From TrEMBL:
Residues 124-147 have a biased composition (Basic and acidic residues). It comes from Prosthecomicrobium pneumaticum. InterPro entries: Metal_resist (IPR025961). It comes from the Bacteria. Pfam families: Metal_resist. This is Putative membrane protein. Residues 124-154 are annotated as: Disordered. The lineage of its organism: Bacteria, Pseudomonadati, Pseudomonadota, Alphaproteobacteria, Hyphomicrobiales.
Length: 154
């Protein structure tokens, strides 16, 4: 039995469409798995910002932050809202400098509040730390502004 040329082409088109749909679904599911929604992971935040702390202190800071997680999640939601407000203020015509300044100030105040909450969590953990734990604190890794820039890619 031989297949007509038209049938072979139709089968290849169906195969390509099926593969495309499968890759689309797999990509969507993989993307959701790698970028889960929900509240922030406090240990990830601590590791990014306080990589110079020994593990026991990082755990203590993460526990302190976990205790304030509902407030931090609300702050993060409000920051996203204030960023949208800032963009809207910038795009509004005619340009209103005082509105943009107010949006910047509101966003800055919220960010400052979160920074202070994080500092308080670190201070509470440091108060309970032993002198040995505090002696293990080192400068966090990461780029420094006085380091020379990396060489350009070849």
């Amino acid at each position: 039995m031989t297949l007509s040329r038209r049938l072979v082409i139709a089968l290849f088109v169906l195969l390509a469409l099926s593969l495309s749909a499968n890759f689309l679904v797999i990509g969507f599911l993989a993307g959701r798995g790698f970028h889960p929604g929900g509240p922030p992971n406090m240990m990830r935040i601590v590791e990014q910002g306080l990589g110079g702390l020994p593990p026991s202190l990082r755990d203590a800071v993460a526990a302190e932050l976990e205790a304030t997680q509902p407030e931090m999640a609300a702050d993060l939601a409000r920051i996203r809202e204030q960023r949208r407000d800032l963009v809207q203020a910038i795009k509004t015509e005619p340009f209103d400098r005082s509105r943009v300044e107010a949006a910047f100030a509101a966003l800055g105040d919220r960010l400052e509040g979160m920074r202070k909450r994080g500092e308080q969590a670190v201070l509470r953990a440091l108060e309970r730390a032993t002198p040995e734990e505090r002696s293990e604190i080192r400068e966090p890794r990461g780029p420094r502004f006085d380091d020379p820039p990396p060489p350009p890619p070849l």
